[in-house]
Amino acid sequence: MHLRKHLLLSALCLGLASFSVGCLTAAVPPEVRAAQKLASGQLTGITAEELAAAANAAINLSGSGAPNLTNEQAEVVVQFLKDNSLNTLDDIQGLVENPGNVVISEDVIAALEALTGEDLDGALDGQGLGNTNDDDDDDDDDDDDDLDLDEDDLDDFLDDLDGLI
User: Fold this and answer.
1) How far apart are the first and last CA of the chain?
2) Phi/psi at 142 (nearest 5 deg)?
3) pLDDT tens digits, one per residue of 43-60
């Protein structure tokens, strides 16, 4: 009988501990989760909510008066991170140093067009920029749809993107 009470009490304590750990995990603010993903090299796992919260916290702390990042804008950035396999700050730096490797997918272009109401696909074509093909048949080695950018093209695109945000 004593063993039965001990097991029941142990199970109850274990259940309470599991519940409290679950509650603590769920209570982690999105900007903290974003920082954890950045620190652990998992930027492609960041959500739009986490990115927007982190960016807005930084904007508010800076006192710059810049407008806050919306979830819709953050979704575009998250997709860009995923499209370019950007998990760390070194990955981002590598992309800046090698702008010919930049991938701007149809999803990113469509999202930016929805946000701006402008035909960015045409604008990108006018600048000699391309985009990736979103078809799921990645088995072919046809790189015709990948971007071929130089550093000035990337700087112009990032300036335009920064103006949107």
Assistant:
1) 66
2) -80, 110
3) 999 999 999 999 999 999
